Amino acid sequence: MFTHIDEKYAFDGELGAIYSREKTEFRLWAPEAEDVKLHIYGDCREENPVKKVSMTKGDNGVWSFTALGDLDGLYYTYAVTNDGIENETVDIYARSVGVNGAMGMILNTENCNPTGWENHDYVKLDKYTDACVYELHVRDFSIDPSGGFCYKGRFLGFIERGLVNAAGDSVGIDHIKDLGVTHVQLMPIFDYERVDETNLQRPQFNWGYDPRNFNSPNGSYSTNPFDGRTRVIELKRLIHALHSKGIGVIMDVVYNHTFATADSCFNKIYPKYYYRLWGEKGEHFSNGSGCGNEVATERAMVRKFIVDSLVYWATEYKIDGFRFDLMGLYDIDTLNIISARLKEINPNVILYGEGWAGGDSPVDWNLRGMKLKARHTPDFGYFSDDFRDTVKGNNFENRISGYVNGATGNEENVKEIMCGRISHPQLPQMDKYAWTDTPAQSVNYVEAHDNLTLWDKLYYTNSTDSIEKRKSMDKMAAAMVFLAQGIPFIQAGQEFLRSKPLPGGNTFDHNSYNSPDAINSLKWNRKSEFRDVYEYYRGLIAFRKAHSAFRMADKQEIGEKMRFIDNLPNRVVGFLLYGDNEFEEIVVFLNPNDYPVDLYAFGSYEVYIDGTRAGTEPLRTIEGEYKADPLSVIVLGRKKQGEASRSLPETDEQSESA
What is the pLDDT of residue 657? Predict the structure, then answer.
């Protein structure tokens, strides 16, 4: 119903408060508004503006006004009249905001750069599969007393170094560096609704998937939410601290919906334009997000806003990548425009997201960024729920098991996920079910902020098993994440068995979006309690980063250099990898049984990973008969020598072809 608006009024210039020391030009796109006034405030707590001026409507429905002088640090809103009703609203393009996001801030961003900001750059990747992603919530990171942070729950928690827990083990940014991940994915750090920034002494928590101001950092993570400049400076200090450690920053973005709908800033500026509608006269807001609305990404000025916003974060904050919430609500054309534009700025930008939606949408399924349409958005990775559910069991059924915790008969599914969900010459069924041609599109994970942690899931499925046995399952699941083709992804704290127990015992929080810190915070003492698990994750990451065979780039390479082994013991999956930078051959076996299995090595191999240890140094040498421990992964490597020799018997397929 807005096609004619796009055709008549689409605008490709800059919008928002365009600042210079001599003047600030205000531009607002509101083509059907009857009147727009600019309100200037000296402070975000003032009720009455110090100045009101009428704006002038120009070409393409853009209202503008130029204010002379240096307005840096002042606040502003627009009073927009539609259908005879005036609403005061924040500018959707505001680069920072005052407390609780009610007013935009006029900002000289050059004055917000920390020392050394101009001398650092993005973290570079040769390819997506070189990444190891660590999902983290800013408040969770530093709010727990066990971490000993000064800036609890704040952006500045990331600049604190040299912190240790009660046992003397490193925590915070030093822990992340030591773990070895390449990128931290920050859960929403833009300005969101359901935390009252005027009263941060009262404990409040939210994941942040309730957007209000997309271009401004969140004030509850700053030391002064009443000053829009502070939140910008402190977020940049966070990013600079991670970049200084060689760690990239991925921003979790939620352009698919807003928290408010009819009274959102978007709807006050241009009623209904920014949202998808249904009904004979478009009288209802569609709700594909499950949050009350969904943003109409296919409309020209909605698409422009999203692209402009992403470009701003990528340039002003040097964000290394973006994780997209509910990507199934974006149209494919918009996603491809996003990737093209961001790659012009940073060819190494990493892009991925959720290839599903939260409900029905009026947009044709074939035109949306769904996981099963991944080939149409080749620059985007997609979370592999196939991987997650195969390894640990159905994500929405607490007591349904997967490969590592008791399920049987899913060996072929395991092979499919370990090769990155591509079709493979040994897996003819994948010709029909593969949803991508490149492992770079498969984000492999068994735990994220949504749903149960892996450790809590293992309690529900295997509550009668010992802690040691469940630890073995956890380690095996982690090994599958880091040894599979694709992009490995873990949630912060997974490396020390993160848990979210509810009061009363033996039940766990599966949706802790607004649960208290006692549930959500990272309990840093668990790192010492489960030191063996932490060291195992650390070793897995180091081994993956050291060996290119686990980071292959395309379908053809995997088809040629990854071969599954036939005729193995019940439930055991094994495969060979060739073409590594160091090894002539790598052998991987997965044993999900609760008993050891007998294997045989044709030749001499060094063991680098087993059920208890992982790393880049060999653990022992084997030749001939050996055992794979219960509930374990074993990885063997043979260094490159002069003449290659065959290490394992031919598979049936090889014999027939010979």
Answer: 32
